[in-house]
């Protein structure tokens, strides 16, 4: 078998140093090392590491000590959470009923139903409903997935203070009241340790 004329793979160098290569391949590999400075350097490093490993006479810790130590760190990882860390996730639009063709038998002149938007953000999804009325836009929705409650706010484009806020009920549903004036908004959902952001939410006719 002919090796790559450029460089020897790491696994083959290790086999050569350990003496696991057949004689023809061993000779071919050593011939390559005589002409390749890079592979020669790697082989020398690997040789030193192998010698150190063979000379290592340290002993493993007792089995019960290792088991107790691993169990301690596992239990700590399962019960502790880093305080004050809030992940921010940008939601991605997966479905928009407004972009779907009209259903068979529905005329374009009929009153439109609430527009449904479905967003995906990490482990959760957000089912959003938008309905235009005489007093403005009614924005409602539900968090689908891991949810232990939280808050929702909408910030109008160009402003810093929320225009409206709402809380999630025990089914992780929300309704923004009063109705929201027309415009472009950013909707932020604050859950336990994550903030889901839906930017450029267009509430215009």
Provide a quick synopsis of the model:
By secondary structure, the chain is of the alpha+beta class. The chain has helices at residues 10-18, 23-35, 37-55, 63-79; strands at residues 87-90, 92-96, 115-121, 124-133, 136-144, 151-156, 164-167, 173-180, 183-190, 194-203.
List keywords for this structure.
205 residues, alpha+beta, Immunoglobulin-like, 5-stranded mixed β-sheet, 5-stranded antiparallel β-sheet, 4 helices, 10 strands, elongated
Structure description:
The radius of gyration is 32 Å and the shape is elongated. A hairpin with a 2-residue loop joins β3 (115-121) and β4. The termini are far apart. 28% of the residues lie in helices and 35% in strands. With 205 residues, it is an alpha+beta fold. It folds into two domains: 10-55, no CATH class; 87-101 and 112-203, Immunoglobulin-like. Residues 77-82 and 103-111 have low confidence and may be disordered. The strands form two sheets. Strands 1-10-9-6-7 form a five-stranded mixed sheet, with no helix packed on it. It has a five-stranded antiparallel sheet with strand order 2-3-4-5-8, with no helix packed on it.
Strand order of the largest sheet: 1-10-9-6-7
Poorly predicted runs of 5 or more residues: 77-82, 103-111
N- to C-terminal distance: 72 Å
Structural class: alpha+beta
Q: Radius of gyration over alpha carbons?
A: 32 Å
- Major sheet attributes: 5 strands, mixed
Report the sheet-strand fraction: 25-35%
The outline comes out as: elongated
What letter string, H or E per element, gives the SSE order? HHHHEEEEEEEEEE
Topology:
Elements: H1 10-18, H2 23-35, H3 37-55, H4 63-79, E1 87-90, E2 92-96, E3 115-121, E4 124-133, E5 136-144, E6 151-156, E7 164-167, E8 173-180, E9 183-190, E10 194-203
Parallel strand pairs: 1-10
Antiparallel strand pairs: 2-3, 3-4, 4-5, 5-8, 6-7, 6-9, 9-10
Helix pairs in contact: 1-3, 2-3
């Amino acid at each position: 078998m002919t090796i790559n004329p450029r460089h020897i793979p790491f696994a083959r160098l290790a086999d050569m140093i350990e003496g696991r290569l057949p004689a023809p391949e061993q000779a071919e590999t050593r011939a390559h090392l005589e002409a390749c400075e890079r592979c020669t350097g790697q082989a020398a490093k690997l040789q030193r590491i192998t010698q150190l490993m063979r000379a290592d006479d340290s002993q493993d810790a007792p089995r019960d000590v290792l088991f107790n130590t691993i169990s301690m760190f596992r239990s700590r990882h399962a019960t502790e959470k880093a305080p004050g860390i809030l992940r921010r996730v940008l939601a991605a639009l997966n479905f928009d009923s407004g972009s779907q063709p009209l259903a068979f038998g529905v005329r374009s002149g009929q009153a439109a139903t609430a527009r449904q938007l479905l967003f995906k953000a990490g482990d959760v999804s957000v089912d959003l409903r938008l309905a235009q009325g005489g007093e403005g836009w009614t924005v409602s929705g539900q968090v689908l997935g891991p949810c232990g409650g939280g808050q929702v706010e909408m910030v109008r484009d160009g402003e810093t203070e929320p225009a409206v806020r709402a809380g999630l009920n025990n089914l992780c549903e929300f309704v923004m009241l009063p109705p929201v004036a027309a415009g472009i908004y950013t909707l932020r959902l604050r859950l336990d340790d994550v903030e889901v952001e839906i930017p450029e939410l267009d509430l215009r006719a």
